[in-house]
Write a structure and sequence with these properties.
With 108 residues, the chain is α+β, with helices and mostly antiparallel strands. The chain is elongated. The strands form 2 sheets. A 3-stranded antiparallel sheet has the order 1-3-2, with no helix packed on it. It has one domain. 18% of the residues lie in helices and 19% in strands. It has 3 helices and 5 strands. The structure holds iron/sulfur cluster (2 copies). One iron/sulfur cluster binds next to helix 3. This is YkgJ family cysteine cluster protein.
């Protein structure tokens, strides 16, 4: 494994951004005092927003750039919502997303 892939596995992955519905509080939107750009999310209800593209099949967040499993990054990394910050490389959710895209476990 190269130094880059072991230190920053997400840069060669992006699977979780193309696997899960990403819902978060309305208060994370830039026009509500947060930082998520308005154009990248859709309203679910009066208090919940969803990253655009994450409830379609195939799932792919509108903020994701690159190709899953090759080179991928979040176009709003600094402004991404909480669920994205909480999903840790090597967690169960991470490994499930990787498996869904045919990628080997990080722990391997
Ligand atoms: S699935 Fe895991 S390794 Fe891949 S981008 Fe998400 S957190 Fe990073
Ligand atoms: S906002 Fe960024 S980190 Fe979150 S799902 Fe979309 S591309 Fe991935």
């Amino acid at each position: 494994m190269s130094q880059e892939s072991s230190a920053y596995p997400c840069l060669l992955c992006g699977a979780c951004c193309a696997a899960y519905r990403v819902d978060f509080s309305l208060h994370e939107m830039e026009d509500e005092g947060g930082r998520v750009p308005r154009g990248l999310a859709v309203e679910v209800n009066g208090s919940t927003m969803r990253m655009r593209g994450t409830d379609h099949v195939p799932v792919r967040c509108a903020a994701l750039t690159g190709r899953v499993g090759e080179r991928a990054s979040c176009g709003i990394y600094e402004w991404r919502p909480n669920p994205c910050r909480e999903l840790e490389p090597g967690s169960d959710a991470c490994e499930r997303a990787r498996a869904r895209h045919g990628l080997p476990p990080l722990a391997a």
